[in-house]
């Protein structure tokens, strides 16, 4: 089986990281992978052992010239099917290119933000299958009018063994410049409005006063960085709240967190939640989108109403004051990730959709 994958993201996190796991797993199962991705992205380098990579300009949702570029790649590679892994123009332009080339096409939807019904009716008509990474995204797509016959569920996954390692406290001092006895709370998310960083900043002043060792780390990058720095300064939180940028050493740092907080207002599933759980870190997150599938309330973490700063503060206080509860939730979370969100199941799920789609088309 030959599959052309299309990913328009610039950074190796979220969907692009899921694609890297998928390419490795498919390659091990004998699939001939080809990848069209943004020129100069890290995915192009990391995916090279598992796919034939074609880098190209990808200018986003308005880059109509992407249709021609992808059409030429499809004609050159002659895949059995095309798998579109991102939006950023790839979902629409890739769908048109595949239709023009007469090749079956499927799209993985990773976000739960609603789209206009007219756009859904137009865009998803191009796709033979749509894969949702969570039941939350399934519900959104069905509510928007996507036919259930096109929809399949394959949850995101993480290689749990990469994160299941002991905390080396010296790394906190060496890499982050913080005291080794710091009580660490982390947020792992793009610095964008819907991830809710500002809500956490509102909840922090009393918590920081109550917990002198508490340090808060925002892992990630994005357009909200300057505004968050300003909010941190205005609230007098400098020296206690830190924007660390994008980190490629999260598997080593996450096990040192006392807890992970994810106050998102919208979320498809939350791969960072799975990463933290695999590291044995309890989680406080919003009850929104696909998050309740990643965090089992009262079992692997605590869920709070989205946008509720008071409830967020109370949940953080409850876990920071109870180390035994944190340990119990963390152990349960690690076990759940190993059981329900393993990479092997994600790869097999995608491969099943490929076979089901191609088998149906052969019998039509």
TrEMBL record:
Gene3D superfamilies: Glycogen Phosphorylase B. Residues 172-335 form the Glycosyl transferase family domain. It comes from the Bacteria. The keyword Aminoacyl-tRNA synthetase does not apply. GO terms for biological process: carbohydrate derivative metabolic process. Residues 14-162 form the Glycosyltransferase subfamily 4-like N-terminal domain. InterPro entries: Glyco_trans_1, Glyco_trans_4-like_N. Keywords: Transferase. GO terms for molecular function: glycosyltransferase activity. It holds the Pfam family Glyco_transf_4. This is Glycosyl transferase. It comes from Lamprobacter modestohalophilus.
């Amino acid at each position: 089986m030959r599959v052309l994958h299309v990913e328009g993201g610039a950074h190796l996190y979220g969907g692009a990281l899921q694609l890297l796991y998928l390419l490795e797993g498919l390659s091990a199962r004998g699939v001939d992978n080809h990848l069209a991705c943004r020129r100069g992205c890290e995915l192009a380098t990391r995916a090279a052992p598992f796919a034939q990579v074609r880098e190209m300009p990808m200018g986003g949702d308005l880059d109509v010239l992407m249709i021609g570029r992808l059409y030429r790649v499809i004609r050159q590679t002659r895949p059995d099917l095309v798998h579109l892994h991102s939006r950023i123009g790839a979902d629409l332009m890739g769908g048109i290119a595949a239709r023009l080339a007469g090749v079956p096409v499927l799209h993985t939807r990773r976000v739960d933000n609603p789209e206009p019904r007219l756009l859904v009716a137009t865009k998803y008509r191009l796709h033979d299958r749509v894969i949702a990474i969570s039941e939350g995204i399934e519900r959104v797509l069905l509510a928007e009018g996507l036919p259930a016959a096109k929809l399949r569920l394959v949850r995101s996954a993480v290689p749990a063994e990469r994160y299941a390692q002991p905390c080396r406290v010296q790394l906190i001092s060496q890499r982050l410049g913080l005291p080794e006895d710091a009580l660490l709370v982390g947020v792992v998310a793009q610095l964008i409005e819907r991830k809710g960083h500002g809500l956490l900043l509102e909840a922090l002043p009393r918590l920081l006063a109550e917990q002198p060792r508490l340090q808060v780390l925002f892992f990630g990058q994005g357009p909200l960085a300057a505004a968050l720095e300003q909010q941190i300064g205005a609230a007098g939180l400098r020296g206690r709240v830190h924007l660390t940028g994008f980190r490629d050493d999260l598997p080593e740092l996450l096990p040192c967190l006392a807890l992970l907080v994810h106050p998102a207002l919208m979320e498809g599933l939350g791969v960072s939640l799975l990463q933290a759980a695999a590291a044995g870190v309890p989680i406080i997150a919003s009850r929104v989108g696909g998050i309740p599938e990643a965090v089992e309330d009262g079992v692997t973490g605590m869920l709070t109403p989205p946008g509720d700063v008071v409830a967020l503060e109370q949940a953080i206080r409850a876990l920071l004051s109870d180390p035994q509860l944190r340990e119990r939730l963390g152990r349960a979370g690690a076990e759940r990730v190993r059981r329900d969100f393993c990479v092997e199941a994600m790869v097999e799920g995608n491969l099943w959709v490929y076979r089901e789609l191609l088998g149906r088309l052969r019998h039509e």
